[in-house]
Amino acid sequence: MSWVFSKLASKFGELRSSTSTLPSPGPGLEHLDVSDDESDYGSEDSLTSTDTSPSSDARSAADAVLRGLDVGTEEPMHPADVLSLLQEGNDRFVKGTSLAVRRNDVVRREIVDLSQSPHAAIVGCSDCQAPLESIFDSLPGDIFAFKNAGNTCIHANGSMVASLEFCTEELGCRFILVLGHRHCGVLLDACKSHAAKQKSGCGDCALNGLQHDLSSVIDQAAELASSVSLISGDRRSADDIVKLSERAVEVNVFQTLELLLRFSETIRQNVRSGQVELQAAIFDEASGKVEFLGTHPMQEELLESSTPVPPWPTEKGKASCCMPLPKNCEVPAPKEAIETLRLGNARYVAGVSENTQAKPGRTAIANPFCSVLACADVRVPVDTVFDMKPGDIFVMRNAGNTCTHAAGSIMSSLEFSAMKFGVRLILILGHTQCASITGAVRACMAGQAQSGRLSRSLGKVAQEAADQLGEGVGLARLSLCAVKLNVLQTMEIVLRHSRPIRELAQSGRVQVQGAVYHMESGCVEFLGPLPNETEVLVDA
Ligand SMILES: [Zn+2]
Ligand SMILES: [Zn+2]
């Protein structure tokens, strides 16, 4: 056993006693029974308990006592304090004494006025059913919630690196947490493919990159698992695969830490100077508990490394994507899916949401009916905005709902959702008061040059908005225009640069649509498909 494995093994040894096991392997992603635990989220008694909870005023007062709501004027917290904040919030979530209120007009109005200085940037997984805000019972604006398939960082030029650099450099955030989760459908699927020696995705898919990244995780997990004789030999039973995926969840969070350090000189510098702390943790759905795993065991070495970005695996030239769609999946058509989201948002706006906040205890693998790419600073969980049960939506979040690289983790997550879960609607969701976009618009108005990958991409959108609206337009109008243009730009990038999604769109199976969440009113404005979609699909 190599040194890194022994270090990881000793780290995980401490965990063993407290971790739960995954559910017995179900029939697979295409058929999942969630009916038995419906009561966890939407039952009448949980609604009643909401009614008997303290009034919004009492809760706001409690929040203020806890730690003033005016986060906008605060300096970002010291990493050690952020860790305690997250631990305390998670304790409240586990005990069912969460303080944060999300379906509440008062809080919604309050958070609109807050400027963004998030204390923690958290990278979670898209198929984790509890929103990150709920898991840490965080107050609005406390955290930037990033999400992709498998809480990964698969490309140095992808949006996770760009988002985290933006969050630490521009917003001053000092704590980055990579959060895996025990019942991860993405890793379970990767373990199944690995065991069957299946190749998922062709050379042209971004999904191939995710698969490549996860297969190295699973190789390490298999080595670890066999070293503690969890799994014997080459023939793996269904039970072995579940054990293997549990191990893979642990290896994967450390791999993401490693890749972030390897890929970003900015993050390395900030960690080296003590400005930023980079830690891993795992969320256990059954208990609701987050196990904090600390920093990477080889962080010192990784900080010294200047490893060049690994080459991107490509085998171009395939006629079409080779991956089969899931069988027997009854996923609603795009039109139906939009209608479901529209009705849910209307309930949210009217204050008659049917779905309560996430609670510990849900352990089925998610079975989403659509995918939504939203911004990390939207300050409300996407499930809440659409009044959906956790797990109904495959949520991806990064800074500015962008797609900065064709082979990055957002593209591969979108492909994963369309090809593994069979979702037929991909919604790109922008929002008003977006820190990323307002910053770009301000810089554009002041004629400042943009540095940083994300700022450059958003700077282009800001310039386009300024060109469209002409002289003498205020920051608010310009920003709203830029928010919409940015949604359209992301839609176009997805259709132009993802071969599988383009093919699914051409055949009418999948639709890419846009929307803007108006934070002031809670309303979602649906923008429909790309106006020039036909052209884009033809000449891509
Ligand atoms: Zn997952
Ligand atoms: Zn935003």
Provide a descriptive summary of the structure in words.
The chain has 540 residues and is an alpha/beta fold. The chain has a domain at 334-539: 3-Layer(aba) Sandwich (Beta-carbonic Anhydrase, Chain A), CATH 3.40.1050. It has 21 helices and 10 strands. It has helices at residues 3-16, 39-42, 44-51, 56-67, 79-95, 105-112, 132-135, 159-169, 185-195, 207-227, 238-263, 265-272, 299-304, 334-350, 382-385, 409-419, 435-445, 453-469, 475-497, 499-506, 533-539; strands at 120-125, 143-148, 175-181, 277-283, 290-294, 370-375, 393-398, 425-431, 511-517, 524-529. Strands 2-1-3-4-5 form a 5-stranded mixed sheet, sandwiched between helices. Strands 7-6-8-9-10 form a 5-stranded mixed sheet, with helices on both faces. Helix 15 links the parallel strand 6 (370-375) and strand 7 (393-398). Helix 10 (207-227) crosses helix 11 (238-263), helix 10 crosses helix 16 (409-419) and helix 19 (475-497) packs across helix 20. The protein is globular. It starts with a helix and ends with a helix. The model is unreliable at 1-8, 11-73 and 311-320 (pLDDT under 50). One zinc ion is lined by residues 125, 127-128, 150, 181, 184-186.
